[in-house]
Specification:
Blueprint: E1 13-14, H1 22-25, E2 28-30, E3 37-40, H2 54-73, E4 76-87, E5 96-106, E6 110-119, E7 122-136
Antiparallel strand pairs: 1-2, 2-3, 3-5, 4-7, 5-6, 6-7
Length: 137
Amino acid sequence: MTTAARPAPAGYTAVFGETGFNKYVGPVWQSPDKAEFLFDVGDIHLNGGQALHGGMAMALADIVMGCSVRDALEGATAMTISLNCDLIGPARLGDRIRGEATITRRTRSIVFISCALTVEGKPILTATGIWKILGTE
């Protein structure tokens, strides 16, 4: 069973292209103010129990936090060096997941960040991560 992806709300933009691993992940949309991310669960994202695969949820958290770090660094690049996730609820085919991230601390070389993924206001994943600042692009 498949479900057609819903269009993104007005003003939302895709966060990456359709190449490599990303073509299996997305689309992931980001709000105009860069505070919120949206993702629709498709059949390729499901596990054998017909719920969102945990690895896909973790990849989505990494994308949400990575994009948020990128936006905060204003031209510098960074990479994930630690990602801790707690899977706390299911998402099903056709569900729209909302992701939000908060930078909790930033030093000259490290960014600490947290993330929540929700479906209709119910949490499905919480995560914390550490990003290493690499330098300017």
